[in-house]
Amino acid sequence: VELDEDLMAVYLEQGEALDPAQLHDPFEKALREGHLIPVCFTSAKTGAGIPELLRVFEQLMPNPLEGIPPLFLKGEGANAEEVIIKPDPSAHVIAHAFMVNIDPFKGRLGICRIHQGTVKTGSQLFVGDARKPIKVNQLLKLNGGAHTKIEVGVPGDICAIPRVDDVHYNAVLHDSHDEDHFHLKCIDLPRPMYGLAIKPPREADAQKTSDVLHIVEAEDPSLKVEHNVALNEIVLRGLGDLHLRAVLELISDRHNLKVETALPSIAYRETITEKAEGHCRHKKQTGGAGQFGEVYLRIEPLPAGTGFEFESAVVGGAIPYQYIPAIETGVRQVMESGANYGYPMQDIRVTVYDGKHHAVDSKEIAFVQAGKKAFLEAVKKAAPIIMEPVVDVTVTVPSRCAGGVTGDLSSMRGMVSGTETIPDNRIIVSGQVPLKEIQEYHSRLKSLSGGEGSFTMDFSHYAEVSAAAIA
């Protein structure tokens, strides 16, 4: 009432005896401005409150034509322009796929709301900027678990299109190439940070596990499946422990698959901090043709993130050029498996500068072994260290929790780099923390902030860590 001066005057005259028709316009204004948020208590199980809720919709709520239209944009980035969509059944079709459900019997269901135009069985629609249309073989009306076939969908209808693999979450379906680059303004979903390593119960279930994980990822935009090639590990990330527990229960109930879970492994690395040289003479005689190869090499550390470099400085044919790749193969084998702690190595330059060969007994396998052993000898002299991944962390919490969060990050071998105050009495704390320390941070942050905090993390760099700290 206080939003409308005329209605306020009427209210002061009539008291509480206001007609619902008088409340409609100010009620709509209050809803638009977020001044008023209706709360209705109902039970879908017993039906309690449903008639009253429908009566509220009918008498008080703005009708769909009065509602705030969805914000469609054309183009990408800063060049995107706002597009006005009208609920006109005779206009071009524009529908938004807000959900994907993969049914074991009906296949992939793209659940869409039609905002403009008319969709009929047999229609052809484009998904996003795809050049090839999809055919609407069936159109389903959803009512709880019941799917009813319909022939026509009009603006305002929520329909499902079955067996269409191209439909994905947030896709725009249309029937003209004029709308190829239409999209809804993105909803800022929380990034999935909490992860669990997923392992199939048996090797025979590996393919089934992979298929099921991609099914739940397609259905839930807040899930992310990662495959860590270096660790040969599949990681499922979600919004927290409760979220992933619900997903794992869904996998168990719907797909009859109980997967094994653990915290994701940490991708540690080895490197060196000093220059060193190594030498190996590989000589093996077994009665027939033997094996002979001798290698001298030097190693030196490279700047962080450079990777691996191999070069040959051999002169005078001490090692024939055809054996140089064999030496590199031996070195790379150690780089991949680790020299001291079993972790892959990085940021090292290897230079082969001398050696010997035998006209009869020299073979590639001999120089592979010689290169490997010479490299191992050099690494032992080059002050090797273990490196751990460090992540950039951004924690958003109520302002009252800032002190607790900064102290907690510091206790995790972290470093706080700054804070920023944002609206709604909240603060952003930025810093860097070793990945190992922050893997289970969801539960700690929940305790510190009373469930009102969130955080994101991105890989930053590798930093030296003691062997005791990773045990």
Please give a structural write-up.
The protein contains ten helices and 26 strands. It is an alpha+beta fold. It has five domains: 55 residues, no CATH class; 103 residues, Translation factors (Elongation Factor Tu (Ef-tu), domain 3); 69 residues, 2-Layer Sandwich (Alpha-Beta Plaits); 113 residues, Ribosomal Protein S5, domain 2, CATH 3.30.230.10; 85 residues, Alpha-Beta Plaits, CATH 3.30.70. A hairpin with a 6-residue loop joins strand 1 and strand 2. Helix 6 crosses helix 7. The model has no long low-confidence stretch (mean pLDDT 88).
Give the gist of this structure:
The chain is α+β, with helices and mostly antiparallel strands and 471 residues long. The protein has helices at 5-14, 20-32, 50-59, 206-219, 241-255, 324-337, 364-381, 402-411, 435-438, 441-449, and strands spanning 72-74, 81-83, 94-103, 107-116, 119-120, 124-127, 134-135, 139-143, 146-150, 152-153, 158-162, 171-174, 182-184, 194-199, 224-228, 233-238, 260-262, 269-272, 276-284, 291-301, 308-312, 348-356, 384-398, 415-422, 426-434, 454-465.
Total number of helices: 10
State which percent range the strand residues make up.
25-35%
Structural class: alpha+beta
CATH topology heading of the largest domain = Ribosomal Protein S5, domain 2
Let me know the number of strands: 26
CATH architecture of the largest domain: 2-Layer Sandwich
Strand order of the largest sheet: 7-6-12-3-4-11-8-9
Notable traits:
single chain; 471 residues; alpha+beta; Elongation Factor Tu (Ef-tu), domain 3; Alpha-Beta Plaits; 5 domains; 8-stranded antiparallel β-sheet; 5-stranded antiparallel β-sheet; 10 helices; 26 strands; elongated
